[in-house]
Design goal:
With 225 residues, this protein is mostly helical. The chain has 8 helices and 2 strands. Helix 5 crosses helix 6.
Amino acid sequence: KMAKAKKKGKKAKKKGKASKVDPEKLKAQGKINDKAARRRAAAIKLIGWIDVARDWFQAHLATIFDELRTQDSGGQGHVTPSAFLQVLQSAGCPLDQDQQETLTMAIDLQRNEIIEYCLPAKQLKCYGGGLMEVVHLGLERVMTAHRQELADIDQEHAAELNLLEVGGVAAWKTGVLPGEMAPTEESLTAPGDADEAAESGDNDEAGQASDGQAGGDDDDNDDDD
C-alpha cells in the first residue's frame, strides 16, 4: 500500500508540473514591452507643453490680443506666422522655439500661412475670445496627432509580440516568419520609382521601334535609287 501511494504521488506531481518556459522568449518579450513603454513615455513627455500653452494664453489673452492688433497694421484680422511668433516671444511665452513653431503651424487653420486671430467667438464671449478658440483648435490638432502616434506605437508593439509568439525569437530578430522570404531590394522599390522605370522601358522600346522604322525607310529609299 505504501508503494502504491508513492507511485500515485509521483503521478500527481507529473500532472501538476508547469510547462517549460523559453528564457530567451521571455527575455525578448521583456525587451519588446520595455521599448514600447519607453516610446510611449517619450511621446507623452513631448506634448507636456500643451497645458502650459493653454494656461499661459488664458492668463495673458488680452495682452497677446493687443500685441497681435499692433502687428496687424492693416486691421485685416490676421497676421503672418512670423508676426505671430514675434508676439509670442515679446509677450514672454514660456514655450521653447520648437514648441512655439509647432503651435503656430497648428493654429494656421487653413494652412495658408495666415493666423486669423480675430475670428468671431462662438462660445468665449470675452475680449480676445476668438483668438482663444483658435488656440484651442490648434492645440486639439496637436493632441490628435499625438493620439495617432500613441496608437501607432501600440500597434507596432502588438505586432512585435505576435511575431514573437508565432515565429519565436529567431523570427522576431529577423522580422520574418519561417517560410517567408526576406524583402529584396526590388520589393522595397517605391511605387513612384517602379513607374518611372516602367515608363523609361516603354520609351526605350518606342525609340528602338522608331529606329527600326527609320532603317526600313532608308532601305526602301536605297531600293528606289
